[in-house]
TrEMBL record:
PANTHER family: TYROSINE KINASE RECEPTOR CAD96CA (PTHR24416:SF621), TYROSINE-PROTEIN KINASE RECEPTOR (PTHR24416). Signal peptide: none annotated. GO terms for biological process: cell surface receptor protein tyrosine kinase signaling pathway. The lineage of its organism: Eukaryota, Metazoa, Echinodermata, Eleutherozoa, Echinozoa. PROSITE patterns: PROTEIN_KINASE_DOM (PS50011). It comes from Stichopus japonicus. GO terms for cellular component: plasma membrane; receptor complex. GO terms for molecular function: ATP binding; transmembrane receptor protein tyrosine kinase activity. It comes from the Eukaryota. Pfam families: PK_Tyr_Ser-Thr. This is Protein kinase domain-containing protein. SUPFAM superfamilies: Protein kinase-like (PK-like) (SSF56112). Residues 1-217 form the Protein kinase domain.
Amino acid sequence: MENGTLRDFMLRNYQQKRDSESICDSQQRVSSDEQKLNLVRFSVDVVEGMTYLFRNKFRHPALTTSKVLISLSTGKCKLYDFVPEDHAKDRLLRIIAKKNAPLAWLPPESIFFRQYCEKSDVWSLSVALWEIFSLGQTPYSGLSGDEIESHYGMEVICLNQCLVLGQSLEFVIFVDITTSSRPSFEQLQQRMRLVLASMEEDTVNNRIDDNGDNSYFNLEEPSCNFNSYI
């Protein structure tokens, strides 16, 4: 698609702008609000895409934002490089066998036991959401494969500290070591839609507050004789 991958788009359009000091405060505030709303929209697209794939018996092992395309004309995100359900385990094993396997996106059951299920993709999806809200950063950046594996000894992965709009998205990006405790795609979809609806409502209210209502009635000089209605 026109903008390439979602990760490239965020690094090009959001990371560089955040690092630049040439934008004035008012422009930066507006840009920041729009950016946060866009990040949630991207996330909803990705979650809905994964939900759709699951319903139609497709899988996407080790999903990352580099496996998400974004359209310049619509701003919509589309997933690619997914596989039929019965090919997912083989795909996962090939990914793990790579020299530089993307361990940061893989769940512990896949790394340590070569196991794979629906909730394995939920783990990868949650890490991809963290990528989005960190503007394309790499999880566990700078850590070796062994160091990344050592983090999986914790009860809950520490990616749930992502913040947006001053509120924690922990309830969305929460990923548990135990597969049965992870949310379903449908639950993630519902949660992200609620976040998006709340943000869009806030955006509308903020625009109303910023624009104000300049329609006033002049009470000192009424344009009609109220006595005529009595």
